[in-house]
Amino acid sequence: MTHAHNHGHDFHHEHGSELSEMQLRTLAIETILLEKGYIEQAAIDELIETYEKKIGPRNGAQVVAKAWVDPKFRKWLLEDGTAAIGSLGFGGRSGNHLVALENTPLLHNMVVCTLCSCYPWAVLGLPPLWYKSAPYRSRAVADPRGVLKDFGIELPKDTEIRVWDSTAELRYMVVPMRPAGTEGWSEEKLADLVTRDSMIGTGFPKSPKYLK
Amino acid sequence: MNGGQDIGGMDGFGPVQPEPNEPVFHSQWEKRAFALTLAAGVAGGWNIDMSRFARENRPPNEYLTMSYYQIWFAALEAMLKERALVSDDEIAVGQTLKAPKPVSCILKADDVARVLYHGDPTERETKTKPAFKAGDRVRAKMMNPVTHTRLPRYVRGHLGTIDRVIGCHVFPDSNAAGAGENPQWLYTVRFDGGELWGADADPSVTVSVDAWEPYLLPT
Amino acid sequence: MNSAADMGGMHGFGPVVPEKNEPVFHEEWEGHSFALNMVTGVANLWNIDAFRFKRESLPPPEYLNLSYYGLWTRTLELMMLEYGIATPEELKAGHAIAPFKQAPRAVTAADCDNMVRCARPFSRPAPGPALFKVGDKVRAKNMHPKHHTRLPRYTRGHVGEIARIVGCHVFPDSNASNLGEDPHWLYTVRFDGHELWGADSDPKVRVCIEAWEPYLEKP
């Protein structure tokens, strides 16, 4: 039996041994592609560096903060998300078809990909484990209020919850409501209140007291 | 529940692989797991619907990885613990640690033949009349209970025809939840393959399920 | 295909468990698994739809039990084997084994920078006029293709409303099997929760998906 075929049955292994096994298998792929000239090592390192350190929810927070202070930008963002975030230098991978969803007192948006893990990388970076896992993928579309409870959130019964299942290449980000008590704040300070979860729809922005 | 057990219509499992000269049990522990489940059911006082729910009520990834008797055994442990007949500590050491809880009856060896012969008939008397008759068109409800049900996902929402009125039988959805037998009229409902699987399906295929009245709507 | 990946509406997975201060990659190898998947995309060895199809084709017990990046590594192995980039012996040995064909060109850090910043939009010129307009009621087809599709099972057969005309996009059902991009009109379709989950479900929930025109029909 080939190595590859063997590993089809190795999912019984404990988590600890699966780690070292996965290290070896990933390294095998990398070594082969390098040796055959498909990739340069620097490309791998650059990608890891980019998504580990450079692209993250801070991007989306900037977008939201600008939408909070600038009504023209907000309108643009809701009409043409790709172009609006592009004006701030965000876009590219998983951001070519960006749609912004506006939360209101009567409407709460949540984003999921039940089929895999599609997520707006350009504005949020890579998704957290919970977003990609079976509990979220299976329950978000059927029981979003139950899922919000897992995040410690309870919405009023008459709030409409709209769940967006990212089945195509459109990527969604939620524009949460601006917290009260932030009048006159700068965009930079407002961005500090915008959490990643608030842009997925499983959280709210921090309260201004947080930044006191 | 829409658990790992509800896999009608799912792809990716590969071909059916019959085992030549397959033994009844593949190992000693399987024999014991089987027998323990039946015997403990008498002492534990649970019904078969509760057993089925205990089996399916686990993360789907576990359900789909465990062997058949591993699932039975896991469900047995769960039901024994639920009823405080056995504790986690006792399972860990494999010994009794505190006085046993009294039970109303146990399965004695002399009773086995009789009990197995009697079986577990589920038909019950009723004064109600069935809502449907053979030939009626019905729609399987769009329902997604998190509790036990026997309406598979692949028929929900689809149109079928009453093939036969079976009788009034214990209703698993209630019985599994400990809410009583609540017997309901039971029907065989037949669906065209095309109705279930789409325009490209084999036109010679029909599929039937046995569905209780609460699962069905008139059209 | 009706794969293990298609889990919208499944029960039994437990609560969502967010991890505090979760790192982007839990182990160093995960970062490499991620990066390797990106560079193979830039190298144009296969398209993203073919990769998704391969991943969801894993037997359900395997799919459901591998970690997220475990799935990516496993899928990469299978793609490399299928596309002749590596042999089983090479994967087992962990390095290339001569004789082998050199790649026409290596993906550089600059290529990746470009991919990250610009990527490649999926929109394409329209093959003809759109069949539906905003506000139209549509039914998601009851289709069960064995090939890759992005119409989740929980929507099939249900009636929704066109909320937006997105444009013309590469059609995954075709692209995943390397039958060409075959772009079709893409719509955002909105469904009421009751329609999807039944009369007992939360009346205030609506679910939107993107659906290509071949997935939809007049109700």
Classified in CATH, the superfamily of the largest domain in chain A is: Nitrile hydratase alpha /Thiocyanate hydrolase gamma
Task: Provide the structure class of chain C.
Answer: alpha+beta
Named CATH architecture of the largest domain in chain A: Alpha-Beta Complex
Number of DSSP-assigned strands of chain C: 5
In order across it, which strands form the biggest sheet of chain C?
A: 4-3-2-1-5
CATH-defined architecture of the largest domain in chain C: Orthogonal Bundle
In short:
The complex is a heterotrimer of chains A (212), B (219) and C (219). With 219 residues, chain B is an alpha+beta fold.
Walkthrough of the structure:
The complex is a heterotrimer of chains A (212), B (219) and C (219). With 212 residues, chain A is mainly alpha-helical. Chain A folds into two domains: 3-39; 55-211, Nitrile Hydratase, Chain A (Alpha-Beta Complex), CATH 3.90.330. Chain A contains twelve helices and four strands. Chain A has helices spanning 3-7, 15-35, 41-54, 57-69, 71-79, 81-86, 121-124, 129-132, 134-139, 144-150, 187-191, 196-200, and strands at residues 98-102, 107-112, 160-165, 171-175. In chain A, the strands form two sheets. Chain A has a two-stranded parallel ribbon. Chain A has a two-stranded parallel sheet with strand order 2-3. The radius of gyration of chain A is 20 Å and the shape is globular. With 219 residues, chain B is an alpha+beta fold. Chain B has two domains: 28-118, Cyclin A, domain 1; 137-218, SH3 type barrels (Roll), CATH 2.30.30.50. Chain B has a five-stranded antiparallel β-sheet with strand order 4-3-2-1-5. In chain B, helix 1 (28-44) runs parallel beside helix 4 (68-82) and helix 2 (48-56) crosses helix 4. Chain C has helices at residues 28-42, 48-56, 60-65, 68-82, 88-93, 109-117, 172-175, 193-197; strands at 137-140, 159-169, 184-192, 205-212, 216-217. Chain C is built from eight helices and five strands. Chain C is globular and about 60 Å long. Chain C has two domains: 28-117, Nitrile hydratase, beta subunit (Cyclin A, domain 1); 137-217, SH3 type barrels, CATH 2.30.30. In chain C, 32% of the residues lie in helices and 16% in strands. The mean pLDDT of chain C is 95. The chains are: A mainly alpha (212), B alpha+beta (219), C alpha+beta (219). Strand 3 (160-165) of chain A pairs parallel with strand 4 (205-212) of chain C.
